[in-house]
Design goal:
Layout lengths: L11 H5 L1 H7 L6 H7 L2 H8 L14 E2 L4 E2 L3 H8 L2 H10 L6 H7 L24
Antiparallel strand pairs: 1-2
Length: about 130
């Protein structure tokens, strides 16, 4: 009988993709996905969700710009003052990248500078219970 051709052990697949694992562990929504969420009809659905016990804060306290759920209204308000939220607002001011812009960059048209979009922190409705 010859030697077994299997090399390594059953845990080796975890070691191979460790960089990919770390990059995708805390992945958030991309900016173009958030821009589509900021449209009035989808924004109202996201901000007024039904109670879901599987999501943090029962899906009642949601930051539209960062795509994050919070435990209570107080932590959501504190989040609005953080550096991460302000940085995300600044990133969202630029119009999302489109296929037409990609074609212009490839030489299939003249360059048009991206437009800025007015982005403000969402209004908070406090429930008096």
């Amino acid at each position: 009988m010859g030697k077994s051709k299997q090399i390594g052990n059953h845990k080796s697949d975890k070691k191979k993709n460790i960089a990919k694992t770390w990059k995708t562990k805390r992945r958030t929504k991309d900016l173009d996905e958030i821009h589509s969420d900021m449209k009035p009809e989808t924004a109202s659905k996201l901000l007024h969700q039904e109670v879901d016990y599987d999501v943090t804060g029962c899906a009642q306290h949601y930051c539209l710009h960062c795509a994050r759920y919070f435990v209570d209204m107080r932590s959501l308000k504190e989040h609005f003052k953080t550096k991460l939220h302000k940085k995300r607002l600044k990133q969202l001011r630029e119009e999302p990248y489109t296929q037409a812009e990609a074609e212009r960059a490839a030489g299939m048209g003249s360059y048009i500078a991206p437009k800025t979009v007015e982005v403000k922190t969402q209004s908070v409705e406090e429930d008096m219970d």
